[in-house]
Amino acid sequence: MTGTPGPNNLMVTASGANFGYWRTLPHMMGIGLGLVSMIVLVAAGLGVVFTRFPLLHELLRWCGSVYLLYLAWKIATASSAPRVEQQNSQPMTFWAAAMFQYVNPKAWMMSVTAISTFTVAGELYWQSATLVAGVFFLICFPSVSVWAGFGSVIGRWLHSSRARRVFNGVMGALTAGCVVMIW
């Protein structure tokens, strides 16, 4: 699930194209930490809250959709200047990427599914939950890294402002399209 197209992977692709792989690294690490922290919270019982309070799930969908549309807008309207001229622009920070996971419905679905599917009941529960979180972190980083690397390669081909503007518009539209998956 961490390798499939979704909000995180589209955002790191756009970031890789606009800022390069190395400047996107904090964003990638934030995704991993945010996902792992969410898995741990779901293992601790937070996932049950959505079952007991469906209104909270609905609120998450609305907040996630609005924030995702905001991020899509930021991507679509990002600077079309070449990478070397974007030194004052900043990619998503570590903490912003980590906190984004909490309004990312795909991350919630992955966390709840992982804990309900791959943990064992009883005295080995926390060991299995820790293993699940660790495996997700180990798989998540290479997955988003491939997408950021892909974006970085694409960024090398975007020599004109027009090409970069079109690319950012397409990536923004694809990111906004993820809202459809939420509903």
TrEMBL record:
It is found in: Cell membrane. The keyword Transcription does not apply. InterPro entries: LeuE-type. The keyword Coiled coil does not apply. It is a multi-pass membrane protein. Keywords: Cell membrane, Membrane, Transmembrane, Transmembrane helix. The chain crosses the membrane at residues 28-51, 107-126, 132-154. PANTHER family: ARGININE EXPORTER PROTEIN ARGO, ARGININE EXPORTER PROTEIN ARGO-RELATED. This is LysE family translocator.
